[in-house]
Specification:
Blueprint (H helix, E strand, L loop, with lengths): L6 H9 L10 H11 L20 E5 L4 E5 L3
Antiparallel strand pairs: 1-2
């Protein structure tokens, strides 16, 4: 799945304010899914609104080179 998202797809997702985090390790997918309330999708046919997660704030922490997710349901 790492190579399944191209630059054009990322552009249109960003216009809709949908954050895509690339290069997530497989052992972290379950934790992230439960924390944010999202459901991972492998193809565009499976991509629906009810599979999106939510958080109050998501930002990149440049010091630790990580993504911080705050205010999950």
């Amino acid at each position: 799945m790492r190579d399944s998202v191209n630059d054009l797809a990322l552009h249109f997702l960003a216009k809709k304010k949908i954050l895509v985090i690339r290069d997530v390790e497989r052992d972290m997918v379950d934790f992230i899914s439960k924390t944010t309330g999202c459901i991972p999708v492998a193809s565009i046919e499976q991509f629906t609104e009810n599979k999106l997660g939510s958080a109050q704030c998501v930002y990149e922490d440049k010091e630790s080179n990580s993504i911080r997710v705050v205010g999950c349901p």
